[in-house]
Amino acid sequence: MHVCYYTALLVMDVGKMSIYRNAVWFVKGLQEYTKSGFEAAAKHFAAADLDVNLSGRSFVITGANSGIGKATAQEIANRGGTVHMVCRNKGRAEAARDEIVERSKNEDVHVHVVDMSSARQVWEFAQSFSQNNTVHVLINNAGCMVNQRELTDEGLEKNFATNTLGTYILTTALIPALKKAEDSRVVTVSSGGMLTQKLNVDDLQFEKGTFDGTAAYAQNKRQQVILTERWASQHKEIHFSSMHPGWADTPAVQTSMPSFHAKMQSKLRTEAMGADTAVWLAVSAAATKQPSGLFFQDRKAVATHLPLASSRSTPQEEEKLLTALEEFALKFKP
């Protein structure tokens, strides 16, 4: 029976396979990614893991003015860490900073205005930041889900430019600074949605077929997981991880996925629940006892592929992704 089922799956065309992946993923999500999923997982958390004093440690957090990024920044500021908020909108970032400082009584919270979809701005920020500051931990949280195919001023598709290329440039540009710091880490906020996608290196900017913002976002999130694995194997001195926050009630979910938000609102996690694993990976001693390069959900390393989902990529495809990103990065390097 199982063999027949497996064979049937293998001969499915790509369209049916993506329907299979989406269905399996949604059932998994209802069980694990919701508020009740978090509450069940949290029964096994070691509360002491987050009892840390972060004074003297410096954290760069992208997209830190709202949602999971802001909740992460708040938790780090509460524990005395120096927080560098990398945000696109100056007004919103400064309002968020004031709130974080007010709640944490920690003045060491700084705003840097950078549009993560602009490769040149990301480069310029990374270069000047490295010269003037120490960085112990980078949290790649900024992301976007644009539902119409839209190009940046640099001519790149916006989801790809923000989620993948921006993350790639910022991380690679800060690696030399991270290597100089003690107990350095890179945490990338990915998404369980990446489980529905197999890496597609032949259409990084979604030029073929009908554009689907949700699929584009999930593809970018798959790319982030692969980058995390690659960086971990290349840079042993830094602890790399990626994570899934679960389905959280954030401004980004409300605007990018209004129908999902409306249907699921009562089941969604709070922003703090969504941020919990990112904070744990960034600050706890327990996190660095885990191997570098893994994908986490609720403080546990989890599989990066659904069962029978044919979503694995070859080393050659992954190499092709890195080569393409390196070419894009160099093209915009100031």
TrEMBL record:
Signal peptide: none annotated. InterPro entries: NAD(P)-bd_dom_sf (IPR036291), SDR_fam (IPR002347), SDR_member_12 (IPR052992). It comes from the Eukaryota. SUPFAM superfamilies: NAD(P)-binding Rossmann-fold domains. Coiled coil: none annotated. This is Dehydrogenase/reductase SDR family member 12. It comes from Larimichthys crocea (Large yellow croaker).
